[in-house]
Amino acid sequence: ALEIERTGPVIRTICAKTKVAVSIDTRKAAVARAAVESGAALVNDVSGLTFDPELAPFCAEEDLPVCVMHSQGLPELMQYNPLYEDVVFDVYDFLEDQINCLIRQGIGRNRIIADPGIGFGKTMAHNLALLNKISLFHSLGVPLLLGVSRKGFIGKITQENVAEARVIGSVSAALTCLSQGVQIFRVHDVKETRQAFDMWQTIMFGRE
Q: How far apart are CA 95 and CA 63, in angstroms?
C-alpha cells in the first residue's frame, strides 16, 4: 500500500505534463496494476518477473511492454560474494529462459526488453565482463536496456566517491555500449548523455 501511495501521484503528475511513456519499477502485481491505472505504460521488474507469479499474467492481459532484468539474490544480500560459472553466459541463459517463459504466458517478444542488471548481484569484474560482451545479448532478439549511470564500479575505477560527480565515467560507459548497439539507456544526467550520443551519431553516421 505504501508503494502505491508514493508512486501513484508522481505517475499521474508526470503523465499530465508529458507524452513520454512512464515506467513503473516494481516486482509486485498490485503495484503494477495501480501504476498502470495511474498512467504507467511499461513494467520494469528487477527480478525478471520471477518474484510475483501474478505479474506476468497481468502484463499479458493488459498487453504491456515489460523489461526483464537479471539480478542474483535478494536486494539486501545481492552484493555479498556473488558467484557465477561464467557471468556473461549465466546472465544470458537466465534472460533467454525468462523471455521464453514470458512468451509462453502471452507476452509477445515485441513487447519484451532485456536488461543484464549491471551492479545487481555482481562484482566490478562481473560488470566489466558484461559490458565488454554486451553485443552478445542482441542474440536474445529483443531490445537491450542498460543502467550504468553513476554506479559504484565507475566510482572504484575513477576513484570518485561522490555519485553525482561520475558524469564523465557514466557517459563514457554508455557510449561504449552504444557503439555495441544497445538501444535503451537509463541515466541520471540526461542532457550530458544526449549531447555525447548526438556527437557520436553525427561523427559515425553523418546525422545532423
A: 20
